[in-house]
Write a structure and sequence with these properties.
The structure is a single chain. Helices cover about 5% and strands about 45% of the residues. With about 190 residues, the protein is mainly β. The longest helix is centred in the last third of the chain and has 8 residues. InterPro entries: Stress/Tellurium_Resist, TerD.
Length: about 190
């Protein structure tokens, strides 16, 4: 059963039988909001390029990043499935995804922060049906979903993070708006959430 997370909510990443998850997928989906007015019929739907990134941290320092130009972490534990330049057709599936093999994440990595940014510069007011979700990659079961609601004039979002807690992992929905076209632009906005 999936949990619909609100900003700041946290869940433990363990299975119902108490065992730890070993592999998760952070999926991102979106559509361009329909254009309004007479010209909208002539110009058609706009293309919006949202990009999912995973920034790996050790003791508050960036150690690696996985995004559309660096699809696999240096240690191989985190993998981006590829860049989607336009968003979805309304089917509700993931347009971009980042796979995390939690069992392979090196012990010094204590947090992985997931971000989304509008590479083409449109604001979230021009995006609809955007979501970030966490899926048990072994079973396909959706564990948690964070919905981008309300649009806004920002071009990026610090979506969520997974972090070590005791002997396992937890996910925290962050949902903090930010401004930037790339993950590098977002690093100052990520720092308060570490």
């Amino acid at each position: 059963m999936s949990v619909n997370l609100g900003k700041g909510q946290q869940i433990s990443l363990s299975k119902s039988d108490g065992t730890a998850l070993t592999s998760v997928r952070m999926g991102l989906g979106w559509q361009a909001a329909p254009r309004k007015g007479f010209l909208a019929k002539l110009t058609g739907a706009r293309e919006i390029d949202l990009d999912a990134s995973a920034v790996l941290f050790a003791a508050g320092q960036t150690t690696d990043v996985v995004f559309f130009q660096h699809l696999v972490s240096d240690d191989g534990s985190v993998r981006h499935t590829g860049d989607n330049l336009t968003g979805g057709a309304g089917t509700g599936g993931d347009d971009e995804a980042v796979l995390v093999d939690l069992a392979r994440v090196p012990a010094h990595i204590d947090q992985i922060v997931f971000t989304v940014n509008s590479f083409t510069g449109q604001t979230f007011a021009q995006v609809q049906n955007a979501f970030c979700r966490l899926v048990d990659e072994t079973t396909g079961a959706e564990l948690a979903r964070y919905t981008l609601t309300g649009g806004g004039d920002h071009t990026a979002q610090i979506m969520a993070k997974v972090h070590r807690s005791g002997g396992g992992w937890q996910m925290k929905a962050i949902g903090a708006p930010a401004t930037g076209r790339t993950f590098q632009d977002l690093l100052p906005a990520i720092t308060p959430h570490l």
